Amino acid sequence: xxxxxxxxxxxxxxxxxxxxxxxxxxxxxxxxxxxxxxxxxxxxxxxxxxxxxxxxxxxxxxxxxxxxxxxxxxxxxxxxxxxxxxxxxxxxxxxxxxxxxxxxxxxxxxxxxxxxxxxxxxxxxxxxxxxxxxxxxxxxxxxxxxxxxxxxxxxxxxxxxxxxxxxxxxxxxxxxxxxxxxxxxx
Length: 186
Description:
The protein has eight helices and four strands. The chain is α+β, with helices and mostly antiparallel strands.
């Protein structure tokens, strides 16, 4: 059986690359990034939207109608709104989180930045993001763009991945380590 995460990643990267190329050609990378960020916030805050995006139950027409309504309500227009329509029409909404992540990486590379994938138990505010970027810049020596994913299951702390390096300060990992240490003692 094929590895579905790899299939999703390939689909996401192809769609993100196409969106970036079109946005770059039209000088709209910044506006697409803002719309993309707005949509990511909606995904992070709405379990219903997450379920809708990942569910294969809805028809392409239903997905298209819902995406159009969501985009209009959120004030998302232009390239990203059209992109969402194409993704819904092609029944690829399941790969949308990966597309957003891939687009951010491509855009950061274009600007000469490196990208850090950050997993947090809750959404980071602007001050926390700025502080994290400054700390990562101090370590890497380069400007850092961060892609934040919210995962309440890590309980607290952060998981930061920059290139092939990963730093896991999550409470879940610390508790697991402590649990193993206690088993070895007893």
